[in-house]
């Protein structure tokens, strides 16, 4: 059984918040867990190539370059040592200037070899509100309809991923103010899948 779990969620769904909470819950329960943020790894790799870019500008780079860095990031993450469950915080798709682009195309999936794909979702109205309130990030789409469409795309991509990886999909809801509950749900799913 693979110890890697992909956790994906569209921008504004509260993925970072829930994963921070997951770290706290796992620590309190003494459950070893490693969380890697795919965007951070890519950002470091961009820097190493002499291209320092804001994390919200990576998706505006040349697609060939993004694809190279994406694959390199996957290889690096795939080599992560240790026996604990490895949570990869990433996206099912990225909106690039060339179109909707898979966050985990075949070669990336092969490197990560996930045993489970978890989608974090929330109400489209909550997502739109969070996107508009977050001044620390540059969000491309901010309406409720755009949030709804992003949620749909995330599921389409997850289904393609599940077929390629032969991995099941779980959905965890993150309603306003309930990130602790969402983190507990996540941990239960991760434990169930990585203890098999
Ligand atoms: P995040 O902080 O999770 O919203 O991610 C920041 C940025 O990292 C995204 O907007 C993408 O440019 C990039 N990123 C994260 N995961 C992937 C991935 N799997 N493939 C390509 N780019 C990614
Ligand atoms: Mg985030």
Topology at a glance:
Layout: E1 4-8, H1 15-28, E2 33-37, H2 38-48, H3 63-78, E3 85-90, E4 93-96, E5 99-102, H4 106-112, E6 116-121, H5 124-133, H6 144-165, E7 169-173, H7 179-194
Parallel strand pairs: 1-3, 1-6, 2-3, 6-7
Antiparallel strand pairs: 4-5
This protein binds adenosine monophosphate and magnesium ion.
Describe the structure.
This protein is of the alpha/beta class. The model has no long low-confidence stretch (mean pLDDT 95). The protein has a single domain (4-194), classed as P-loop containing nucleotide triphosphate hydrolases (Rossmann fold, 3-Layer(aba) Sandwich). Helices cover 49% and strands 18% of the residues. Helix 1 (15-28) packs across helix 7 (179-194), helix 2 (38-48) crosses helix 3 (63-78) and helix 5 (124-133) crosses helix 6 (144-165). The longest helix is centred in the C-terminal third of the chain and has 22 residues, at 144-165. The strands form 2 sheets. Strands 2-3-1-6-7 form a 5-stranded parallel sheet, sandwiched between helices. It is globular and about 40 Å long. It is built from 7 helices and 7 strands, in the order βαβααβββαβααβα. Strand 4 and strand 5 form a beta hairpin. It binds adenosine monophosphate (AMP) and magnesium ion.
Morphology call:
globular
State the end-to-end distance: 7 Å
CATH topology heading:
Rossmann fold
Query: Given the structure, what is the number of helices?
Result: 7
Ions, cofactors and other ligands present here are:
adenosine monophosphate, magnesium ion
Kindly give the count of domains. 1
Uncertain stretches of 5 or more adjacent residues:
none
Helical content (DSSP H or I, runs of 4+) = 40-55%
Please state how the strands of the largest beta sheet are arranged side by side.
2-3-1-6-7
CATH class: Alpha Beta
Major sheet characteristics: 5 strands, parallel
- Rg, alpha carbons: 16 Å
Structural class category: alpha/beta
Compressed to H and E, one letter per element, the order equals EHEHHEEEHEHHEH
CATH architecture: 3-Layer(aba) Sandwich
Assign the CATH superfamily: P-loop containing nucleotide triphosphate hydrolases
- Tell me the fraction of residues in β-strands, as a range: 15-25%
Give the integer mean of the pLDDT values.
95
Number of strands: 7
